[in-house]
Amino acid sequence: MKKLWVAFAAVLIASFTVLGWVGVRVYQQAPPIPQRVVTTDGQQLLGPGEVQAGQNVWQAMGGMEVGSIWGHGSYVAPDWTADWLHREALFILDTWALAEHHARYDALPRPQQAALRERLTALIRTNTYDEATGTLTLEPVRARAFAANQAHLADVFTRGRSEYAIPVGALQDPAQLRLLAGFIFWSAWAAGTQRPGDNVTYTSNWPHEPLIGNIPTGDTVVWTGVSIILLLAGIGAMAFYYATRPTEEPLGEVPADDPLLALHPTPSQRAVVKYFWVVSGLLLLQILLGVVTAHYGVEGSGFYGIPLDQVLPYSVTRTWHTQLGIFWIATAWLAAGLYIGPAVGGVEPKGQRLGVNVLFGALLVVVLGSMAGQWLSVKGYLGTGDAWFYLGHSGYEYIDLGRLWQVALLVGLFLWLFLVVRSIRPALRREDEQRPILTLFLISSAAIAGFYFAALGAGRTTNLAVAEYWRWWVVHLWVEGFFEVFATVVIAFLFARLKLLSLRTAGEATVLSATIFLAGGIIGTLHHLYFSGTPTVVLALGSVFSALEVVPLLFVGYEAWHNLKLTRATPWVRNYRWPIYFFVSVAFWNLVGAGLFGFMINPPIALYYMQGLNTTPVHGHAALFGVYGMLGIGLMLFCLRALEPAQEWNERLVRFSFWSINAGLMGMVVLSLLPVGLMQTWASVEHGYWYARSAEFLQTPVMNVLRWLRVPGDTLFALGAVALVLFVLQVGRSRPVRRAVAEAPPAGRTSTP
């Protein structure tokens, strides 16, 4: 066991050293933000601080929830970076063509078009930023292109665009519109201008824009090949490991009766039930908002004729949809930690129930307060001063909370950590076979509380490249990293308390699996940052380690088969089969959603064309809900079953829920999101990224039919979720059927797991 811990520690130290070093490079080589943007004839386009002020306008109105920047954000409106770059290029080409050939660029013979493109490429890609003075100098024709693009943006946000799901009057202040244009111009300038001393742009030639020579770099192609080779090598190594590993330690005789029947839940464990009610409510609300958000893709100004966008614009519904997904999943996992704590320690710490109730209230305040603040910010009621930043919308997808709510969430997470640690402390003091698994439980719990600190790295004036670096610490390391380690530990411990697994075997397996997963997962965070204004070392490291991250997911069938065998161990285990079935579905979606659909977009050459297309939500839905959502549901059902092992469950509801949720999720992905994403990928390769995200392409009859094909899968999924909520409410409100005493044992007595 000591060797396993040494390997685990070595992976953590080495991986975070590399990730920290890359972070320093990101800070050093982020695209510079000019203090002044001027033309060669003396005209000033932007003054000191105006790019950052435009970034604040963008953040306050929803930021990444209104289209995307550098490919990160929502999918209905354009990617503003690619859109600006393409419009600027066409404006300049037409200006030159009309002045020199008396015809628009499209009407010219190909040799003349080619000559103008070469001239345009030299103009756009030449870096004219003076680091000493902080001044960016442009040719006058680019100033005229700036004015034309600014007028286009003003028209979009004042008059609205149904095809972009942007309502009338989304932004009307001319000064704010000019600042917004300045920020988008900066993002496009960084995407089209070469780094000093290099032949690639600050975004590694992303987006694909043939008019200015933005095509995949040699690094993009080479490191894609390397990542595929390492994936195959990793698969071979894992296959060898599974083929040669020793036989698992025999558990011995499985108990004839459920070990939990004779035990009593503590007051704090019973107090956790209301967390599951909230999980159910947030799940339903998230699905409702998901239906509305998806519908905006085909009817951007309303919901079946109702002008809903005037009250709940797309940017709000999508913000709430993504945020509530994280909230209900995290709440289910946190509740499982609170439930398992007294079971581990064997005692109920004094005041534990009060702490659980206080944390419950705090979580409700954060959820409701942040949602209200985001609506006020997007609607413009918080202005662009300080209020939007602290109370409103951060502008960054998945960490959309205003700064006050982010801090409040951090406080809540550390309160949760305190409650968990104090409940398991008696067990940590004991030198027994469960100590390894408890140590990993403690490490993952501390990481869950601490890693949300990374959200604070994205501030009001933080360079977007730096903000993206810290945002993905939260999305990838917090959600996809240590939450998964935590869930693995909890599942293993629950099986061990049922005496279906050896604690020693479970401890070794969890430390080993955490080491393997984090070996690729920590540095693999960088695959989100290939084209986000980061240096090319990010592309090399991200491609290699994201491939290694996929390797263990290809062998999750072993885990699924092992869990299925547990349901057949003895008749009483059948009472736990539905929680176990959800754990089995986690293994399936780990392979499909995180493995296959994840690797589909992870290699650099794939992500170069696919970033921000509907191939991204294919992976997002299948991995976030399929893996982490199913885990949350499984943990919730396991805790509810352990509270009342003898209770008769309405298995028709939970059976319908299980199959409907899984079938609906698969239908949503393969019937709609995947075909739309693949067609967008073709458009991106063939014509340019701007076209794949344009209304001209997305609003064609074929694309609308494909988006409508979400309805069957979404409907089945929603029905399954409703059945699950009804089941949870039914189980959670039931009265004890086997209790000889009304309350749990006093402090010092053993509690149920």
The largest beta-sheet arranges its strands as 2-1-6-5
Q: Classify the beta-strand content into a percent band.
A: under 5%
- Overall, the morphology is globular
Helix content: 55-70%
Give a verbal description of the structure.
This protein is mainly α. The chain has helices spanning 2-29, 50-60, 80-101, 110-125, 140-159, 174-192, 218-244, 267-271, 273-295, 314-345, 352-378, 387-391, 403-428, 435-450, 464-497, 503-521, 536-550, 556-566, 577-601, 604-610, 615-643, 651-686, 689-692, 695-698, 701-708, 710-732; strands at 36-39, 44-46, 68-69, 72-73, 129-130, 135-138. The strands form two sheets. Strands 2-1-6-5 form a four-stranded mixed sheet. Strands 3-4 form a two-stranded antiparallel sheet. β5 (129-130) and β6 form a beta hairpin. α7 (218-244) packs parallel to α17 (536-550), α10 runs parallel beside α21 (615-643) and α11 packs antiparallel against α13. The chain is globular. The relative contact order is 0.12. Residues 737-753 have low confidence and may be disordered.
Question: What is the compact description of this entry?
Answer:
With 753 residues, this protein is mainly alpha-helical. It contains 26 helices and 6 strands. Residues 737-753 have low confidence and may be disordered.
SSE inventory with pairings:
Elements lengths: L1 H28 L6 E4 L4 E3 L3 H11 L7 E2 L2 E2 L6 H22 L8 H16 L3 E2 L4 E4 L1 H20 L14 H19 L25 H27 L22 H5 L1 H23 L18 H32 L6 H27 L8 H5 L11 H26 L6 H16 L13 H34 L5 H19 L14 H15 L5 H11 L10 H25 L2 H7 L4 H29 L7 H36 L2 H4 L2 H4 L2 H8 L1 H23 L21
Parallel strand pairs: 1-6
Antiparallel strand pairs: 1-2, 3-4, 5-6
